[in-house]
Amino acid sequence: MDKKIKKVLVANRSVPAVRVIQTCKDRKIPTTAVYSTPDRLAAHVFMATDAVHIGEAPPVESYLNMEKIIAAARKSGANAIHPGWGFLSENAKFAQMVQDSDLIWIGPSPEVIHKMGDKIESKKIAKEAKVPTIPGINSPKTAEEIRTWMQEEDVALPIIIKASSGGGGKGMVRVTHDSELENALAQARSEAKKSFGNDEILVEKFIEKGRHIEVQIIADQHGNVIHLFERECTLQRRNQKIIEEAPSPSIDDDIRQSICETAVQLMRTIGYSSAGTVEFLLDAATGKFYFLEVNTRLQVEHGITELITGVDIVSLMLDIAQGDPLGFLQEDIRPNRWALEVRLNAEDPATFSPSFGNISRLHLNLYPGTRVSQGVYEGSEIPPYYDSLIMLLMTSGPDRETAIMKMESILCRNLRVEGVKTLAPMLLSIIRHHNFIRGDFSTRFIEEHMDELVSMFPEGDSEEDVLKIAKYIAEISALGTPNWI
């Protein structure tokens, strides 16, 4: 098979598809977009060189339909497939299908995806590689089995039940009282079966003041493995990240060196290639970190690592897929900025309920030190079938204070989205909160401060303002111009 990438089919939509297409355009590599019926006018469709319709709205008929995506690649003449993030990006079967079709898979090997896609299996591999892991029990069948483990290992509540095949916060239930255990076990199994087709679960001690620290890894097919340092991904809602920053304000240089070297050691052990991320949970009370999982794909928040290192991670993924060796060494990576990212989702900021409809107005005024990955445009329709992420907003500066200041300016003055609700007011409340500014937060920050954060929302509603103006114009039209004008 010719390993030179001639044309890339992007097996995704919205923000991830746009991000991959951007790098391909920079490198003058033609692209093919795929789209479902409601996405026929989506931003990624217009950006690509050409586009192929792959089915109706439900993901199983379109973005999760492996045969249709492979057929679209053949039809368009693409010889490589990039999965972005989400959908089929961590599906070992799809990666194998791509390779069996004599197409270039832009990602790690199907074998590695399969091994690291199961939380139980990946935890065993991490233990064998001498990577610290959270105390836990694999595949318990009953609540009594969990209670016995807690007693034997001296593990106190709270604990967390996780889907073994899980991701994105689905199939995760925290247990704070013994009486909740039976129902929590049933709930986690049910969510796991519904989301991943597998109801196997594992249980772990819940770290009360946990901080999510992840290390970005780049590895080629020649045994070269380096890290691009770490990101802080602690601020989450419903176990899904909404604000990330690099570097992490939670760790000192000693922990930074240790956690990054541990990630490299693990990825070298499993024979990783392409871009990938090792996630750790840091216990703020003890300073100890524990392995969580390996994300065998491009992460949503990769952009802030690109901002602080000057490296294009998507471009490196293309090089590695072609068999090219890395063109730099670990000592060549020298971060010199601080970067912050917020995920702008089309959701009600007070409830996190999805908000669907037409974006009637979109205004975004950017300036130096800012970056946007935009999956929509003014007039875009936000369909109810997919992830609610519409835009990634990133800022950078010489220090954390500057990055936060620039982000506040964007969210407060330089961004207007009308027609759908977004998380902008919530994001603004978080970055203005004194605990966030001090770097004092955990994975439960939003949960613990929800009422306070909502109370900090800016006064007024842009849609109400528009209605007031419309009403005033209507009155002038009906009554004539007032004599005071």
Distance between the termini: 75 Å
Give a short account of the largest sheet: 8 strands, antiparallel
Domain module tally: 3
Summing up helix and strand content along with how strands pair, one would put the structural category as alpha+beta
Supply the CATH superfamily name of the largest domain: ATP-grasp fold, B domain
The number of helices is: 16
In total, the number of strands is 21
- Give the mean pLDDT: 93
Helix content: 25-40%
Q: Poorly predicted ranges (pLDDT <50, ≥5 residues)?
A: none
* CATH class bucket of the largest domain: Alpha Beta
The CATH architecture of the largest domain would be 2-Layer Sandwich
Envelope shape: globular
* Strand line-up of the largest beta sheet: 14-13-10-11-12-15-20-18
The fraction of residues in strands falls at 15-25%
What is Rg?
Answer: 23 Å
CATH topological fold name of the largest domain: D-amino Acid Aminotransferase, Chain A, domain 1
